[in-house]
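Why should sequence recovery work at all? Because a backbone constrains its sequence more than one might expect. Tight turns favour small or flexible residues, buried strands favour hydrophobic ones, and helices have their own preferences. The token representation captures these environments compactly. In the example below, the structure is given first.
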């Protein structure tokens, strides 16, 4: 197996794990965590000794590293490169920077500072913003996954033997 292909497979695999986790978080965890802020936020902190903040940073870093490797190792194949680069840019700007700018401050407000620092109204509003913005994050992860799959498919198709025209 070629190293470039292995990099694409690794990137797509990590991205699919990430997409599954984001989907699970959005549909299963967040309705419970944000159902009755600020009380539900405090219950979530008590309940989750290991939570999304322990999972997403290392998986996100692995996703960015495997994505960058897949782009670099397949740079010469224009059809593959464009799909992978688009996917990685969505992850870099749509997931990572979006998280840094919008989610990390809100995580601090809700789960670190909490009601010791903020009023119930601030916590409720922050929880509503977080939940609404999280749908955007999920919406960005979907096309990134599709583009990485298309890059994988294009790589595979570019390596298939072409049928001969002699008859």
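From this structural description, the recovered sequence reads:
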């Amino acid at each position: 197996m070629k190293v470039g292909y292995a990099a694409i497979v690794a990137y797509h695999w990590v991205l699919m794990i990430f997409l599954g986790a984001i989907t699970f978080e959005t549909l299963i965890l967040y309705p419970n965590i944000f159902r009755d802020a600020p009380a539900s936020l405090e219950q979530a902190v008590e309940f989750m000794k290991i939570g999304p903040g322990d999972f997403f940073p290392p998986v996100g870093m692995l996703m960015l590293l495997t994505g960058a490797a897949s782009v670099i190792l397949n740079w010469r194949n224009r059809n593959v490169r464009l799909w992978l680069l688009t996917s990685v840019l969505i992850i870099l700007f749509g997931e990572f920077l979006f998280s840094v700018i919008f989610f990390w401050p809100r995580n601090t407000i809700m789960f670190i500072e909490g009601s010791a620092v903020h009023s119930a109204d601030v916590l409720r509003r922050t929880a509503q913003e977080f939940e609404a913005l999280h749908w955007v994050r999920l919406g960005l992860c979907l096309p990134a996954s599709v583009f990485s799959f298309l890059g994988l498919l294009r790589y595979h198709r570019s390596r298939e033997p072409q049928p001969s025209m002699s008859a």
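A few observations help interpret the result. The longest helix spans residues 78-117.
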